[in-house]
Amino acid sequence: MGLTKFPNGVSSFGIPLVGDRFSNPWATHYFVDADHGSDGNVGKDPSTAFATIQKAVTESTGGDVIYIRPKTYTLGTGFARYTEDVSVTLGGSGGSGATATNANKSLIGVTQRINPTDFLGVRWKFSSATNLTVDAPCLHVENIGFFVEDATYAINLRCNGATRTQEGTTGFSIYNCAIKGDGKLYANGGNELSIVNCRFQAKYDGTTGGIQLVGSSNQVARAVIDGCDFIGGNSYNMATAPINTAAPCWDLMIRNCFFSVTTDSTTYIVIAGTSNTGLVANCYFGSADINAACTGLVAGTSGVFAAALYDEVGIDDFSS
């Protein structure tokens, strides 16, 4: 099999590159290697990689792809962590009709793993408060383990509605990532948010982070949470519901998810308000009886309905 050459020094013997499906012929590839790189480099091939994620984010422009290499592995503690607070700015002046020059970037952790865990390879801890703050639309994140115990947020997706100087919730996608601790994936409004095949683990004492989608004046439209795992912290249950939303959420889809243990609050999903639409389907809950936890869904008071939900007994018929 021949050697295939890709832009910026990346090669493959016929094997698809990690994250290559999110690239395009016009993209520039940037590389981050904290152990061997330098922010004084040009960052456009592995031998001249940057040292920090923020440097690659700052130097890249819309549509570019950033590959992040795992740091060294230490027995007893695992892969060392990137420790920084990163911001993906909108790019451009903002406002309706303006061009967001930083739209559609990708942050790809280089790993052979398929299932997300805290030991994916690329591990990222916040520096002061929030690992990743996003104002630019259509950012994609993949194959990264976020360590967020005592963080404000793991990922803060910001949107200010019609002002359009923050639009980080629009088209954001995160695949195959792990978020461990009480720092949330937080979205204020948004359109076409996708959270796929991710693992959310509570803090060691059970304090829950998880996902928070806030409609407020900026509605959450067509968000998808698919194939995600929600687990406790060490031997503790999740203290509170790992998925929280506030109206309006339109066409919300939560499907194929696994909630491994009961929560101390006996609630798994909070759908607040009444001006919502959507479906919770084909999910498993580690509880003897999920009727009480799903009463709001069944009654339809929130506007989000339930179908094919399972507990420890089997499929729930919501009869009692």
Helix percent reads under 10%
How many structural domains does the protein architecture include? 2
Q: Helix/strand/pairing class, anyone?
A: mainly beta
Stretches where pLDDT falls below 50 for ≥5 residues? 1-9, 11-16
Return the CATH architecture of the largest domain. Answer: 3 Solenoid
CATH level 1 name of the largest domain: Mainly Beta
The CATH topology of the largest domain is Pectate Lyase C-like
Largest sheet: 17 strands, parallel
How many helices? The count is: 2
Mean pLDDT: 86
Record field, number of beta strands: 31
> Using only CA atoms, what is the Rg?
20 Å
Beta-strand percentage range: 25-35%
Describe this structure in words.
- The protein is mainly beta and 320 residues long.
- The chain has 2 domains: 1-66, so0334 like fold, CATH 3.30.1910; 70-310, Pectate Lyase C-like, CATH 2.160.20.
- It has helices at 53-59, 295-299, and strands spanning 4-5, 11-12, 29-32, 65-68, 73-74, 78-79, 81-83, 86-88, 106-109, 123-125, 130-134, 140-142, 145-147, 153-157, 173-175, 178-180, 184-188, 190-191, 194-196, 199-201, 211-214, 220-221, 224-226, 229-231, 243-246, 249-250, 252-255, 258-259, 269-272, 278-285, 304-310.
- The chain has a 17-stranded parallel sheet that branches. A 7-stranded parallel sheet has the order 8-11-14-17-21-25-29.
